[in-house]
Design brief:
single chain; 317 residues; alpha/beta; 2-enoyl-CoA Hydratase, Chain A, domain 1; 50% helix; globular
Length: 317
């Protein structure tokens, strides 16, 4: 059963009627509902195209958080072969919110890092809802160092509401781990391509998103804080999250305009969860194109260009 967002009610009503008609046809083969079903399917396509052509920032936030949206594990299984996950930070523990390892991308050896939220209660608890602890970032640093040592391009997939803010995480140096991970990204002498596939939340995102090329899916969001967090700080009222989302400029279109990201990967009408294989393939094509451009460059140029890219953000606004 599809999970509908609140603004998708016209779509849910039409698709409910289609399911009803299909059930009637199954129960009584003498009744032909194909013509009516076809008509309603046309109306669904029209309604979906209309609704998704004018989503506001808060609605895009809801799409980015959709429980059926493809996550890191879906991209990993479709885009990479011979994926070998690496666990532990060699200091304290394993953190399941960040998945990292070595793989082949269209035949090319690469290192892969991404955040995984989980897709049911059990897996969400296991992956801490995609909010990494310090151990996750230290594991990411370990894999980045390995990529740099062996000349492996690095691909990162970002999908987190933010790093875990719990007391234990703070005691074990959450801020320092995020800073070290960001620093490691900036120092790499191999190509690094990052894609925000869902939520890009604060330092928890940028710690593995400081790449030579940074892309976002059409309905992904990327911000220094969640809309709810911003509303709580600015107005002491988290219910004003919709207003905060609009003012924060968190959509892919906003960030492309500011020069913070390099490109937008289009999603199927209705969002990535409607046709996950299609959007995953499109993401793979964009990553492949970026790697083709970056691979011929020297290590020094890759590092210097990456650093300059982030130093230039905000200078021409």
């Amino acid at each position: 059963m599809h999970n509908y967002l609140d603004f998708e009610k016209p779509i849910s009503d039409l698709e409910a009627k289609i399911r009803e008609l299909k059930k009637i046809a199954e129960e009584d083969e003498s009744i032909d509902t194909s013509e009516e079903i076809s008509r309603l399917e046309g109306r669904v396509e029209e309604a979906m195209a209309d609704i998704y052509s004018k989503l506001n920032a808060w609605q895009k936030t809801q799409v980015a958080r959709h429980p059926q949206r493809p996550h890191f594990v879906d991209y990993a299984s479709h885009l990479f072969t011979d994926f070998t996950p690496l666990a532990g930070d060699r200091k304290f523990a394993e953190d399941a919110a960040i998945q990292a390892g070595l793989a082949r991308f269209r035949g090319q050896p690469v290192a892969v890092i991404g955040q995984e939220k989980g897709n049911d209660t059990k897996s969400r608890l296991k992956h801490n809802f995609g909010s990494p602890r310090p151990e996750g970032y230290r594991k990411a640093i370990r894999v980045m160092e390995m990529a740099d040592r062996f000349g492996l391009p690095l691909i990162t997939l970002i999908d987190t509401a933010g790093a875990y803010p719990g007391v234990g995480a703070e005691e074990r140096g959450q801020a320092e781990a995020i800073a070290r991970s960001t620093e490691m990204c900036l120092g790499l002498k191999v190509p690094m391509v990052s894609v925000v596939i869902g939520e890009g939340g604060s330092g928890g995102a940028i710690a593995i998103a400081t790449g030579n090329r940074v892309y976002m899916l059409e309905h992904a969001i990327y911000s220094v804080i969640s809309p709810e967090g911003a509303a709580s700080i600015l107005w002491r009222d988290s219910t004003r999250a919709k207003e905060a989302a609009t003012n924060m400029k968190i959509t892919a279109e906003d960030l492309k305009g500011f020069g913070i990201i390099d490109g937008i990967i289009q999603e199927p009408v209705g969002g990535a969860h409607r046709a996950p294989e299609s959007v995953i393939k499109s993401t793979g094509d964009v990553i492949a194109s970026a790697l083709a451009d970056l691979t011929p460059l020297s290590g020094e140029k890759l590092r210097n260009d990456r650093r300059q890219k982030f130093l230039d953000i905000g200078r021409n606004l």
